[in-house]
Structure formats: structure tokens, C-alpha cells
């Protein structure tokens, strides 16, 4: 069997154990929505409480398409998408699990003193601590710490080591704490702005410039729910300016800088931008 089918083999093994899976492309992000589901024309599933494909047979809508059905994973068009996948994602909440994503050494050191030991999986920069039990997903519950469970996905990086523990109250409590007051300095980033090619609606350069200014102001004025505001703002900008190719790295950099000035980490800005593009099928 071709090595390109390795993600599909892993997916079938996970699905057999009751873990809902989805294919991830380069950048560890889901594939964009199919043509029929672009712009969530089909009604979408990102806000649904249970995983499963939308009415179309394609693996659309990120975590919501995760499945444990081997027939779906092996069928067309899923099989073709798995052939282009670089890794496997899974929906932790759909498997009754919660992943505490520790992004760096400081976050790992904190977890070792604050959380009970459990199954641990090494990541590129940190560790995933996996607990038995589901909860709502929340990003940036403290510096370098995200919670991935319901309505979220995590990258599968192997079975890990150690015995899985029940989800502790200490992790549930993180979801209701106030966001960290840390305000990191904006970082220089290069992010994909989209291939463009669509019809340009901008009558003058000032039209786009005004839109970016309004988006920056919306993020800057946010006094609560900053992460949600950033995502919704990115979604608005991309829905209007994401298909014609007029957005540049400079425009996106201004949006990211505004988000980081409100406490968002660089990685969370990138994730929010990528998720917005995926939702819109870009």
C-alpha cells in the first residue's frame, strides 16, 4: 500500500476504537469546504453539538465532519482527500476526551505542578495531556495552554505514554477563569492570504483600507470575549475581501497586531485566521 495512504490507515485504526477522525492538510488544518458548501451555503455544521458530515459526502466543516464510520473514510470523495492528507485530526469531545494542549516548556512545568498525571503525547513544541471526559473547548486559558474537547479538533501524534486519568475539576475550572492578562508584543508573521482570482469589488483602494481600519477598531474596542471577537472580525474581512486577492500580508499583519495587543498569542491569531478561511471554504 502506498505511503501516501498512511494517514488513512491510521484514521481507520482510530475510528475502529471509537475516535472520530478527519483529514488534515499542510499546516495541520482541515481541508476547505467543498464547492457546494462554500460560504456555508449548505447550512454548515461548525455550531452543531454532535459531529458528522453535512448533507454532502465530502469531509467539510472541520471537526464537525469527523467520523468513526470506516465505509465513509474509505469511500469517495473521502478516500481522495485522505490521499492528499499529511496527517490525521480527531475530535476529542466526540470520543469523550479532553486534550490539554501545552505549547511550551513553561506550560508543561505548570501542568506538572497543577494537574494530575495522565496519558501524555509529545508535540512539536510541547505536550498533549489527554483526560477521559469531555468539556467545552477554550483557547488561551493561561499562557501556552489550550483546551481541546467538544467542537474542536486535535492532531493525532501517536498513542502516547502513561495511564489516562479522569478529567479533573482543575481542568474544568480553567474554562471559567478570566483570560490571562499577559499582553505579548506583536510578532512579525507571514500568513496565507488566499490565492485570489475572484472578481474584485473594490472600487478604490480606500474601500479596502476603510474595511481594514474598521476591523482593527472592532478588535481594539473589544472589552470581553476577545478571542471570539477576533475570529468574527477575521471572518467578516475574509467574507468580503478574501477571494479577490487584494488582501496583503501587510493588511493581515495589522489585524494580527491588533489582536495581539488585546492579549491573543501569535499562534491563536494564525489558528483563528485559518479557521475563518476554512469556514468560508477559502
The biggest beta sheet reads: 6 strands, mixed
Helical run tally:
9
**Care to count the β-strands?**
10
**What proportion of the residues is helical, as a percent range?**
25-40%
State the low-pLDDT regions, or none: 178-198
Q: What string gives the helices and strands in order?
A: HEEHHEEHEEEEEEHHHHH
Shape: globular
Rounded to the nearest angstrom, the distance between the terminal CA atoms is: 32 Å
Could you tell me the strand content as a percent range? 5-15%
Using only C-alpha atoms, the radius of gyration works out to 19 Å
Derived from helix and strand composition plus strand pairing, the structural class reads: alpha+beta
Mean pLDDT: 81
Distinctive features:
globular; alpha+beta; 282 residues; four-stranded antiparallel β-sheet; six-stranded mixed β-sheet; 35% helix
Please outline the helices and strands.
Layout: H1 6-16, E1 21-25, E2 29-30, H2 70-74, H3 78-84, E3 87-90, E4 97-102, H4 105-114, E5 119-122, E6 127-132, E7 138-142, E8 145-148, E9 154-155, E10 165-166, H5 169-174, H6 205-220, H7 226-241, H8 249-261, H9 266-280
Helix pairs in contact: 6-7, 6-8, 7-9
